[in-house]
Design a protein that fits this description.
288 residues, alpha+beta, 3-stranded antiparallel β-sheet, 28% helix, Znf_RING/FYVE/PHD, cytoplasm, NOSIP
């Protein structure tokens, strides 16, 4: 027998390895790729601009936004709602006018029907005298019922897609839940005081820390925002210090469960932190 290698082309069976290799080389089919650390945003970046926040705010669900970016988003959605509402009101007004025109047309048709009936009675009386009547399809106002395709004013109207009443609620672009400006909480970062690090803030690898435990914050460290003050602390600080007597460790004010907002992290590359670490690249399918 001849020796068979893994890439044997004389075999009668098209193996899975050969199929996968050919699919990767040909540019067809769906290709799965594991996302790395560089494919996810940092914990202090805006969810819209994907850049470090200059004036950070956080939603009730823990998503971080730049204040300017999220306000522009809310204003654009409200402007879009106003535009759609005007179109909807214009459509409703047009429907009311059409209903009124139909009622007037029906009234006019009943009047013409009555007049025709009266004319028929008088026509029977005058039939002996030899009077003739017109049989044209344009008589008695029937020319208005026939569409004229060479006169623009008499063209039949095309049916326009009916618009639905727009929803005035603004939804979060990430979580899809209702979003209001009053629910945004200003975030206060605690800078890392390292006199040896002369780099700019954006270029630093370790930028912020927990104001209580002084732990360096990052994608691998679960964090939470205290709603009353906006300070960002680690979840370890929340579990071991804050939840003991529910007092703010910096200001001493009383806290509640709703005052702790877990901050959504960008990702670390580990499956424990992220729900899905695979990306799919949809390509044309090669049919046999």
């Amino acid at each position: 027998m001849t020796r068979h290698a893994r890439n044997c082309t004389a075999g009668a069976v098209y193996t899975y390895h050969e199929k996968k290799k050919d699919a990767a080389a040909s540019g067809y089919g769906t290709q799965n790729e594991r996302l790395g650390k560089d494919s996810v945003k940092s914990f202090d970046c805006c969810c819209l601009r994907l850049q470090p926040c200059r004036d950070p705010v956080v939603t009730k669900e823990g998503y971080l936004f730049d204040k300017e970016a999220i306000l522009e988003y809310i204003i654009s959605k409200k402007t879009e709602y106003t535009r759609k509402l005007k179109q909807y009101e214009k459509q409703m007004k047009k429907e009311e006018n059409e209903k009124k025109e139909l009622a007037d047309a029906e009234k006019q048709a009943n009047l013409i029907k009555f007049m025709n009936r009266e004319n028929n009675i008088s026509h029977r009386k005058s039939s002996d005298s030899g009077a003739s009547t017109s049989v044209s399809n344009l008589a008695n106002g029937k020319h208005k019922e026939l569409p004229s395709f060479w006169v623009p004013s008499q063209l039949p109207d095309a049916k326009i897609t009916k618009l639905e009443k727009p929803d005035p609620t603004v939804y979060c672009p990430i979580s899809g839940k209702p979003l209001k400006m009053k629910d945004l909480v200003d975030v206060k970062w605690t800078l890392v005081n390292d006199p040896d690090d002369k780099k700019s803030l954006i270029a630093r690898e370790n930028r912020y820390m927990c104001p209580v435990t002084h732990d360096i914050l990052g994608n691998s460290v679960p964090c939470a925002v205290i709603r009353t003050s906006g300070h960002v602390v680690t979840m370890e600080c929340v579990e071991k210090i804050i939840k003991k007597d529910w007092l703010h460790p910096l200001t001493g004010e009383k806290l509640k469960e709703k005052d702790i907002i877990p901050l959504q992290r960008g990702g670390t590359g580990y499956a424990l932190t992220n729900e899905n670490l695979e990306g799919k690249n949809e390509r044309p399918v090669l049919q046999a």
